[in-house]
Predict the structure.
Amino acid sequence: MAIRIALAGNPNSGKTTLFNALTGARQYVGNWPGVTVERKEGKLKLNSNSQQEDIILQDLPGVYSLSPYTLEEVIARNYLVDDKPDAIINIVDGTNLERNLYLSTQLAELGIPMLIAVNMMDVVRKQGDHIDLSQLSRQMGVAVMPLSALTGEGAQAAAQTAVQLAREGRSPSLPHVFHGPVEHALAHIEDALEHRHHGPLHHHHEGNLTHDGEAVPASLRRWYAIKLFERDEKVLAQLRLAADVRQDIEQAITACEAEMDDDAQSIITNQRYAYIQSLMTVALRRKRAAGELSTSDRIDRVVTNRLLGFPIFIAVMFLVYYIAVTSIGAVVTDFTNDTFFGTWIIPWLERQLPAWGVSDWLTGLMTEGIVGGVGAVLGFVPQMFVLFFMLAILEDIGYMARVAFIMDRIFRRFGLSGKSFIPMLIGSGCSVPGIMASRTIENQRDRRMTIITTSFIPCGAKLPIIALIAGTVLGGAWWVGPLCYFIGIAAVVVSGIILKKTRWFAGDPAPFVMELPAYHLSSLQGVLRSTWERGFSFIKRAGTVILLSSIVIWFLKSYGWVDGQFAAVEDMDHSVLAAMGNVVAPLFSPLGFGTWQNTVATVLGLVAKEEVVNVFGVLYGVGEGALDLVDEGAFDKLAPIAMNFTSLAAISFLTFNLLCAPCFAAIGAIKREMNNWRWTAFAVGYQTVFAYVISFIIYQLGMMATTAFQPMHLLPLALLAGLLYLVFSPNPHERTLKPQAAQA
Amino acid sequence: MKTLRDVPVGADAVIKRLHGEGALKRRVMDMGLTRGTQVHVRKVAPLGDPLELTVRGYELSLRKQDAALVEVE
């Protein structure tokens, strides 16, 4: 039978580093069922595992407490209470002991064998502070061990101890956290649970009874008593106590509240912290006086400075992008595209495959379709890796929290928080890592909204389209680029406002109460691992999706009906793709770009946004190298494309492609983060419909300005009015909602 | 009623009582802002909001509108 150990702790406590150290490559990363929260599980790598059984380490979401209010907390506590792991390793940040132990007191009440691993002991020592681990252990009644996740000290020892605790199976003795009237009330509730509650224990995710007529297990009685005292919604729903039992408990609580002149939740929280404070007086000795500034504080004096904060932020971002995209990134990408694929691989294949007797069409499929298609996208993987690397460093040292801190004011206006800024910032390079970055947003509603709106910001792949339109049709107008970013940002804002008024996204704004963790030098290993994880995830996603779609699209564009026969076509005009384009094209005429070539280009933009430019090149007779021409700025050579657009139609086309569904790789990322096909479909559908409406309004109103007014013009006006109404009307959900417990 | 929002940057305050309810109040308490706790207002973000507080030895970011729910001595 496998031993299961849960890893629990605050965010920023070094949990991930410990998890990686203990599981190495033997990790499985997914999502908790039905939600957008990441789930990590791994096999413990013990240096001395005498027994052959598997030891599974379950990483729980980083939480500060086990309240019923956030998704992460509910997931963590459901796992601990329902799935009952054999032991808990509670990782605690030694430089932040008080707040970290708050969670520890709650974990200790679950009746599961537990070990506290005090992390960052090396930093503690360096600061000159001293933590009396044995005193802590004695007072709390659990094993307490030192850990220095960065250097790796203590990880194996902690794991060994946890396994031993799991095998022994002894519940920890409860620390004496509560006193006086509270302890009295809790004892009363425990009594009620033991003797008077005979109801079945309902389990959360199944909904059907698994224990019939069984009372609350003894080891969990204290946990349930405290939750009942706090009037925890989830627990109340789960236990379904008889009316008289509930009344009895309620009386005990009310009496206590009156006596202590405070509400139940506050009473519990205060006593927990009071207990911890008393612990600190015996177990912790600080060197630094209370008013002194730590190194972190000193850095922040500059970094989040009123005047310098913003400029520094802009400088940092500029540097990141410069290194990732322009210098190193571009060099490696050019090499990959031009040399690796262009000069080595593709010509080699074109020679070798026929030489091996491979048929023409298969050769075509492999060179043009697969390698050509996949290669174009994989060509900018090096840039992605460099970008991921730089962003991982920023995240790891703790700078990203500062970014959210600085940007929060802006995002608060439309119901989000500063944390939503980071995905969008990353999205300006590439939506895929941007969407993945939404994981740090706690509130599921905000997370979903961020995922849906991140791809509105022009990504790197959309730049060639912008450049093409600006350079050829609009005569090199300087304002096109900034306009596109403006459109993207406006789309994010408008969508945020509108969506917040709908049922699925309405609600009290999630509390933005965020820790600003101390800066610390990240471990190179950790950063590399995170970079690799993201990069590989992107390759896998992009790889499979793009591979399949490249094959399909190559086939569709290379074959068609010629003289009544289905065969390979020389000219794409006769291909199946063109036929399909012709069918769909009328849909786009109200937007001003209803030719089959434009339709095909837009559709192929789903493979990779740069493909739009490539396809234009091929379909409008410029040849295969349109992307390179755009790169070089040879806009005169691209004139054949420009001939097909009026300025207005070009803007409409640009807007549509900027805002509509992102490339397949990004859609894949959306699916991964949403963990739900319906939400993914909603996201893509919303973006496309939004893009359509906006482009429609732009084109039609533009036409209206230059031609006579026609009855048909009422439609775009009506749509515009509708849009404005949606944005400016009051939120119907504002007054009616009460603070709700999280939906798991 | 004097609240955390009224405390000037660089000053200290002791928490008297928490107002508000539900998720916000719970989160504020869970993070260590409880009755009798001493808080130091470190700074304000460049755009004027949120506040950065030092509480129980660590740095916490709190919006001004939420700080208004924390009554201080």
